[in-house]
Amino acid sequence: MYWLTKPKNRRPKCIFRQSCSNFVYEETLQNGFLKGLKAFHYRFKNCRSGFEIFKNPTSNKIQMILPSKKVIEEEEIAERLVIK
Questions:
Q1: pLDDT digits (tens, 9 = 90+) for 26-37
Q2: What is the pTM of this model?
Q3: Which of 11, 30, 36, 82 is found 20 to 30 A from 47 (Cα to Cα)?
Q4: How much is the mean pLDDT over the chain?
Q5: Using CA atoms, how far apart are residues 61 and 79, in angstroms rounded to an integer?
């Protein structure tokens, strides 16, 4: 419903490589409604300001700390946010 009602140019920019709506949709299709609901809750809590991108001094990899304090790898971060 979100994709049909909200024009693409009016949607907020996601901080994740796979958009939140696509992530929740795929999770729901593959694993059922409850897993989709959990995926929605996770993304809703984390896809907002309050994240921090940094280069890990130990591994030399780009990572992001989400508002929930979870650390994700470069492969999960939106390309527009990754500065090389």
A1: 999 999 999 999
A2: 0.78
A3: 30
A4: 89
A5: 14
Residue 17's DSSP bridge partners are: none
Q: How many helices (H) and strands (E) does the chain have?
A: 3, 3
Q: How far is CA 32 from CA 29, 38, 45, 59, in A?
A: 6, 10, 20, 36
Conformational region of residue 66, where left means phi above 0, alpha means psi within -120 to 50, and beta covers everything else: beta
Phi, psi of 47 (to 5 degrees): -90, 75
CA–CA distance from 8 to each of 1, 3, 11, 47, 61 (Å)?
Answer: 13, 8, 5, 17, 31
Q: Are 78 and 17 in contact (CB under 8 A)?
A: yes
Contact 16, 24 (CB under 8 A): no
